[in-house]
Amino acid sequence: MAHMEPVNNKPAVSQFLQQAVLIKQGAEARVYRGRFLGKSAIIKERFQKLYRHPALDEKLTRRRTAQEVRSILRCRKAGIDAPVIYFVDYTTNCIFLEEIIDSVTVREHIASAQASGQSVEALYGLADTIGKILAKMHDEDVVHGDLTTSNILLVKGKEGRDGKLVLIDFGLSYISALPEDKGVDMYVLEKAFLSTHPNTEALFERLLKSYTASSKKAPAVIKKLDEVRLRGRKRSMVG
Amino acid sequence: MHLTQDLELFPEHSVTQLLFSDVRNCAELRKMAVEGQIPGALINPSMVLDPFQTLAAANKAVHLQKNGKMKTRSLYSEIIFSLSPTNNISEAFKRFGISDGDNAVLIVLVHNREDVLDKDDIVSNVDGQQIPADQMSTICDIAKIKKLYKVTPQEEKCGSVLDAVICRMAAKDVV
Predict the structure, then answer these.
(1) Is A2 inside any structural domain?
(2) Is the CB of residue B50 less than 8 Å away from at least one CB of chain A?
(3) Three-state DSSP class for A42?
(4) Same domain for A124 and A161?
(5) Which of A197, A184, A167 is nearest to A226 (CA)?
(6) Where, if anywhere, are coiled coils annotated (chain B) (predicted)?
């Protein structure tokens, strides 16, 4: 056991990912589906970005990996559903996560509801729940950083029971108590929501109402949201 | 009786778990492990909810060994350390290792997949009753586990205690 020579110099995780199924490629990371200790898992790999200075790239990537892990743990501790973290490899910046089975993205759910001609009112329950969860997350001072309807999964309930919502992709998340940051978080969601789902202003309004009603800190955030709407996401006008 | 699982990340390795109850020679076993006569980690099964918990620890230990990043001196001590939610090594051994007076032991072995594992040799060292390895959930002390890993009641709403434990183990390097 003491002498286990590696087959070659490539890290074991990189070799493993060659066999895994690539399911998504973004600007920050690649997402794979594979197995981890007999369970189905999602693997998020933050690859090297060659356009950045290697030292800076290494630092940023590592920090984002660590931040993603921290935010997920913080959410789960507060009872907000997020995938279980199975394993983190800081040498290749890979996170092994629980696969959320039997789920659709909220984006798909809303789109199919709209396509089947359902009234917007049928989705009010969903909007209420999203508002409540986001208020809870912001109460924990977790700012998601990339709220979209694709980053909220809807798990179908078993035997007629209500489903649950799972937040995913905390890759751009950070910890902040500032209403400003939370306001921007909601602004990003609003932009994404209204551009992916046409004619859902009333639905988003409902979400915001539920958000406001769920937390004492929410009114300050909504106030900031109104400011952000006027000026856009960036506070200063440089960069 | 025993459970063997391949490590997908390290295809040449497998992990085998053997569980014993009514063990009368824990002091002797511990001495043998310290002297390197038992090629495995001796774990206090009252702190283990599920075989997956020890598997995750073993996977992490092998990973750190391959990268030369172990915090303890051997692969087996690293498995024990990986189970702990904190970065305190002596505390980890105290909580997750076996003590002389214990009456149950979980042995975790890491071996080459193809090797025929000499389980009999290990089993013969233990003066106790081998029971199916997946029965650890019946002998673990769930209240103690929840307390040590600081599992909150809210957290149990969005997942099992095992989920909470696995997250703590995976995230302990950054908290």
Answers:
(1) no
(2) no
(3) strand
(4) yes
(5) A184
(6) none
In which order are the strands placed within the sheet that holds A39-45? Answer: A21-25, A30-36, A39-45, A94-98, A85-89
For the whole model, what pTM was predicted?
0.92
Q: Is residue A169 part of a domain?
A: yes
> Domains of chain B (ranges plus CATH)?
3-141 (3.30.2380.10)
- Report the alpha-carbon distance of residue A209 to residue A218 in Å, rounded: 10
A78 shares a domain with A192 = no
Contact A134, A186 (CB under 8 A): yes
Q: What is the nearest CA distance from A192 to chain B, expressed in angstroms? A: 26
Query: Where do we find the tokens 């009234």?
Result: A119
In tens digits, what is the pLDDT along chain A, a chain of 239 residues?
445 544 456 788 888 998 899 999 988 899 999 999 999 999 999 999 999 999 999 999 999 999 999 999 999 999 999 999 999 999 999 999 999 999 999 999 999 999 998 888 899 999 999 999 999 999 999 999 999 999 999 998 776 566 899 999 999 999 999 999 999 999 999 999 999 999 999 999 999 999 999 999 999 999 999 999 998 777 665 55
Residue A140 shares a structural domain with residue A200: yes
Where among A98, A118, A134 does a domain terminate?
A98
Tally of domains within chain A? 2
Here the CATH number for the domain that contains residue A29 is 3.30.200.20
Q: What is the DSSP string of A58-118?
A: HHHHHHHHHHHHHHHHHHHHTT---PPEEEEETTTTEEEEE---SEEEHHHHHHHHHHTT-
Give the residue numbers of A annotated as catalytic, written as ranges: 146
Last residue of a domain, one of A98, A129, A162: A98
